[in-house]
Design a protein that fits this description.
Blueprint (H helix, E strand, L loop, with lengths): L2 E5 L6 H16 L3 E6 L5 H9 L6 E2 L8 E5 L15 E7 L12 E4 L5 H11 L6 H15 L9 H14 L4 H13 L6 H7 L1 E6 L2 E10 L2 H6 L1 H14 L4 E8 L4 E6 L2 H11 L3 E2 L2 E3 L6 H4 L1 H10 L1
Parallel strand pairs: 1-2, 1-4, 2-3, 4-5, 5-6, 8-9
Antiparallel strand pairs: 7-8, 9-10, 10-12, 11-12
The structure holds manganese (II) ion (2 copies).
The site of one manganese (II) ion (MN) has 5 residues, from α1.
């Protein structure tokens, strides 16, 4: 048996965690000895799902010995991955994000333009003629709901809707809307979490043409709560910008119910960039980015284009 470690990006979301769990199951059926690990604490939505379905929480790893064989899900960029990854042996990648990484040896890469990494795993199950049982269906469906905000996100494709329909039947969940709202409410429960932690919840770091960029994203059913904490969040953003030597930082508060993105912007420099890209005015550190619910599809590509030309 080959011993393989699977992990996902820092500040994990539900799709990444579930993809690693489901991928480990898949590989175990193929006689690999696989374990899923986490790099960071899980968010409240993921915790809720794992508890609801009686799933074990994966163990945390912070570093691995040189040459360890690893398989990645839901991310590929070095800065979003485990520290010291360049010394590890990456053998396999399943992802649905832009590809930006370099390796010293060949590997297997499976990427598709689907909603979630878990949707790709659904296809892999089908291709291998593996049965999708109720447990797997529940898990994959939760990942899809989380990454697409229950099909509201711009990343939605027709194929994914078909998958979700089929999974809903196997999972035996009557009211998908209800089920999704409970997930989102769990994610929005931030009362006991400090602004620094909120910021670290779901940020992604990018290196865009030598510009160090942080894009933070908070999907919530309670946008007022985040806006109410605006001053504290701005202070935390400033600290992070200074301490991590960032060139640009933005925080998108995505209201799942009203399908609207209100973003926090720190200073005039960042405001200038935002106004230039999105053609919306920044006022009192806030900018209305309208229905841009997807970071991957509606924020990152525009920022990339901007920084490549400026
Ligand atoms: Mn993810
Ligand atoms: Mn994902």
């Amino acid at each position: 048996m080959i011993d393989i470690k699977i992990f996902w990006h820092k500040n994990p979301d539900t799709d990444s965690v579930i993809s690693a769990i489901v991928f480990a199951d898949y590989l175990n059926q193929k006689w690999y000895n696989t374990t899923a690990y986490k790099l960071w604490e899980l968010n409240n939505e993921t915790k809720y799902i794992l508890e609801l379905f009686w799933e074990k929480t994966p163990e945390t790893i912070t570093n691995l010995p040189e040459g360890t064989r690893v398989w990645l899900v839901d991310h590929n960029e070095t800065i979003q991955s485990i520290d010291g990854r360049e010394k590890l042996e990456i053998e396999y990648l399943i992802d649905h994000h832009r590809i930006d990484f370099r390796t010293s040896s060949p590997l297997i890469i499976r990427t598709e333009k689907l909603w979630s990494t878990a949707s790709i795993l659904y296809k892999m199950y089908k291709e291998s003629n593996f049965e999708i049982n109720q447990r797997t269906a529940k898990l994959i469906l939760s990942a899809i709901i989380s990454d697409t905000l229950l099909f509201k996100s711009a990343t939605t494709t027709k194929f994914d809707i078909e998958i979700a329909k089929e999974l809903q039947i196997i999972a035996n969940i009557d009211n998908l809307e209800n089920f999704a709202m409970k997930m989102f409410d769990a994610k929005s429960d931030l009362w006991n979490i400090s602004p620094e932690e909120i910021i670290k919840y779901d940020y992604k770091e990018f290196n865009l043409n030598w510009t160090k960029v942080w894009i933070w994203h908070l999907d919530t059913t309670n946008a007022n709560f985040a806006l109410w904490k605006k001053d504290e969040l701005l202070e935390a953003m400033q600290n992070i910008k200074n301490n991590s030597w960032l060139d640009f930082i933005m925080l998108s508060i995505v209201d799942i119910i009203w399908e609207n993105n209100t973003s926090l912007v720190l200073d005039w420099k960042d405001s200038d960039i935002i106004e230039n890209i999105f053609e919306e005015k920044v006022k009192n550190n806030l900018v209305d980015l309208k229905r841009r619910l997807s970071r991957k599809k509606q924020i990152v590509p525009d920022l990339t284009k901007y920084f490549e030309n400026n």
